[in-house]
Amino acid sequence: MAKYGYVMGGRRAGGRWATALVIAGPDLSLARRYTLAVLVIVLQVGDIVTTRWLLARGGQETNPIAQALIASGRFEAVKISLAGVVGMLILVAPLRHTTRRVILAVVVLYGLLLLFHGIELSGALAA
After folding, report:
1. How many domains would you assign to the chain?
2. Are the C-beta atoms of 47 and 79 separated by less than 8 Å?
3. Domain assignment of residue 47, given as a range
4. Please, is 127 exposed, middle or buried when counting C-beta atoms within 10 Å of its C-beta (0-12, 13-18, 19+)?
């Protein structure tokens, strides 16, 4: 049975003619979707800020894609654009169980990355 479908003809509960779009129950509450979307964007901004601070203090970017983006001056624009696209997809796309797990894993990994950046910035890992 399709998740979305037009009901043409027939009757729905209450005896009224059905001509509207029928949408199945929510797969993830809107509040949770907003929370995940905002988290993805905030974590991306945090990654940009801490990466720039580390680079200013003599650190090196180890991700070759990020290195190329930094060299071209497009690092911030690409990171924010990707975060925006992912945030919009979280808000509007149907989220299956596996997709939710992947999004949560990405949020956790970015949180750990920011924790690591914070430790590096504090000088705790300085040799």
Report:
1. 1
2. yes
3. 27-122
4. exposed
